[in-house]
From TrEMBL:
It comes from Streptomyces cacaoi. The keyword Electron transport does not apply. Keywords: NAD, Oxidoreductase. This is aldehyde dehydrogenase (NAD(+)). It comes from the Bacteria.
Length: 509
């Protein structure tokens, strides 16, 4: 059963190599970067990190590929993305193996992450025939006013460890059909997953006869990311990660008048109203807060419960938390895998310590587990903490399974508490009262980019635009019209008459 054992690093290595082999992907051997598995906390292998010359060469190659790719009709560009989707379908289990080995996601969530990539490929293929511009009513006779969307240029993608491939696919599938080459700097924590994705995309390019240069992979740490940030050939820098990272990256891209798309930290809350269906709410809350070991940007971190149901919700959650199986993410039955690094466990401990000092009572979890079987790994029992109010620690994002439970009396107070944090990513209300639900979704309600009713904060579908406000950075990716960030808009006025009519009735000559 779950937690009964932790596989050996040797077994993990073999599993990873087998998956890479089935995908026909070669790992760039060398030094500079260590692939480590959070399952045991031990190294799997070392890889070659890119140096400054390689960063320059990759950006140059992508930049040179741009004119040809820009001139390729969008539906033809879509064929590359369709082929990528086919390869991801064929290698769903293999990519999921890498996600579990490197990010520590349980099997079902790792497969879900690959499914998300497949979904966004399908979306982007459809999009490749739908890059619509508007026709606008002109104020002048014999004139047509319209807008066209054109490819933007090289898109730099910097991604976080916790979605080692889905975030890449949101950006890349859409950017490619929009006519933009992509240079990807994945998290230094998940290099093997990125090598696999890059390998599959290069294979897709060979299969459909697309230029392979439209995708470049750069392995390395912050320095490699910073080189993309400062490179004027990178037209759009799409960066996913902590608010700290966004505060460094945003101003630097702005200083060269480049475009950035920032997807940063969250501090997501759910309101549980007295009318809530508690059976449904408790299941949704446990998945949102403890799923992915609390390491999603949309993980539920704050629960605002109406005073009338607070004790019952706390009791039910405590019971659910006590039974959560923590352990080997490859094992069937495990619901909570490891934290990514020992430093994440330390931050969780620190958060818990501060919560206690600020008047919190730990209802369940919080302790390290499996230290005997995996001394280098960071397994923790998800923590549930009842807080007397929204104290300093509650207003911060601690990237670990740490759920704070607070009470409220009226909806207005709950919404005020809800919005009184620096971040603005995802939010939810559990209620059967339609008025409450609509108020929460209205302009006076949640201030987040994602606002849900009767489902949790995490686990968005790709069809909607994904992102958040305030310290979350304001970017939108994936579905809806998020594609527009990857293109430039041209406004076209065509005079098909024989008179020269100036706008605003201006007369001249
Ligand atoms: P991180 O900020 O440490 O790193 C993210 C990426 O940015 C990495 O590739 C890293 O190398 C790079 N980076 C860091 N500093 C940089 C700099 N100064 N210049 C250029 N690149 C730099 O984040 P992480 O620990 O990998 O991920 C967890 C964080 O990401 C959490 O805060 C989480 O909420 C956030 N996140 C947000 C979203 C979203 O869509 N909003 C999605 C996933 C994760």
């Amino acid at each position: 059963g779950a937690g009964a054992g932790i596989p050996t690093t040797e077994w993990l290595c073999e599993r990873v190599l087998a998956a890479l082999g089935r995908m026909g992907v070669e790992v760039p051997g060398g030094t500079g970067l260590t692939a480590l598995t959070p399952v045991t906390g031990e190294p799997l292998c070392t890889l070659l990190a890119a140096d400054a010359a390689e960063v320059d060469a990759a950006v140059a190659a992508a930049h040179e590929a741009f004119p040809g790719w820009r001139a390729t009709p969008p539906p033809r560009r879509g064929e590359l993305v369709r082929r990528l989707g086919d390869l991801l379908r064929a290698h769903k289990e293999d990519v999921a193996d890498l996600v579990t080995a490197e990010a520590g996601k349980i099997r079902s969530e790792a497969l879900g992450e690959v499914q998300e990539m497949i979904d966004v490929c399908d979306f982007a293929v459809g999009l490749s025939r739908q890059l619509y511009g508007r026709t606008i009513a002109s104020e002048r006779p014999g004139h047509r006013l319209a807008e066209s969307w054109h490819p933007l240029g090289v898109v730099g993608v910097v991604s976080a460890f916790n979605f080692p491939c889905a975030v890449w696919s949101w950006n890349t599938a859409v950017a490619l059909v929009c006519g933009d080459p992509v240079v990807w700097k994945p998290s230094e924590v998940t290099p093997l997953t990125s090598v696999a994705c890059h390998g599959l995309l290069r294979r897709a390019a060979r299969d459909v006869g697309a230029p392979p240069e439209v995708h470049q992979l750069l392995l390395g740490g912050r320095g490699v990311g910073a080189a993309l940030v400062d490179d004027p050939r990178v037209a759009l820098l799409s960066a996913t990660g902590s608010t700290r990272m966004g505060r460094e990256v945003g101003p630097r891209v702005a200083a060269r008048l480049g475009r950035s798309l920032l997807e940063l930290g969250g501090n997501n809350a759910a309101i549980v109203a007295p009318s809530a269906d508690l059976d449904l709410a408790v299941r949704a809350i446990v998945f949102a807060a403890a799923g992915t070991a609390g390491q999603r940007c949309t993980s539920l971190r704050r629960l605002l419960v109406h005073r009338d149901v607070a004790d019952e919700v706390a009791e039910r959650l405590t019971a659910a938390y006590r039974g959560l199986p923590v352990g080997d993410p490859f094992a069937e039955g495990t619901l909570v895998g490891p934290l990514i690094r020992m430093s994440a466990l330390e931050r969780m401990r620190d958060g818990l310590g501060r919560a206690r000092a600020e008047g919190g009572a730990v209802l369940a979890g919080g302790g390290r587990v499996l230290a005997d079987r995996a001394p280098e790994a960071a397994y923790a029992q998800p923590a549930l903490v009842r807080m007397p109010g929204q104290t300093a620690v509650v207003r911060e994002e601690t990237f670990a399974p740490l759920l704070y439970v607070l009470e409220y009396d009226g909806l207005e107070q709950a919404i005020a508490l809800h919005n009184d944090v620096p971040q603005g990513l995802s939010s939810a209300i559990f209620t059967r009262d339609q008025r409450e639900a609509e108020v929460f979704l209205s302009a006076e309600g949640s201030d987040c980019g994602i606002a849900n009713v009767n489902i949790g904060t995490s686990g968005a579908e790709i069809g909607g635009a994904f992102g958040g406000e305030k310290d979350t950075g304001g970017g939108r990716e994936s579905g809806s019209d998020a594609w527009r960030a990857y293109m430039r808009r041209a406004t076209n006025t065509v005079n098909y008459g024989s008179e020269l009519a100036l706008a605003q009735n201006v007369s001249f000559l």
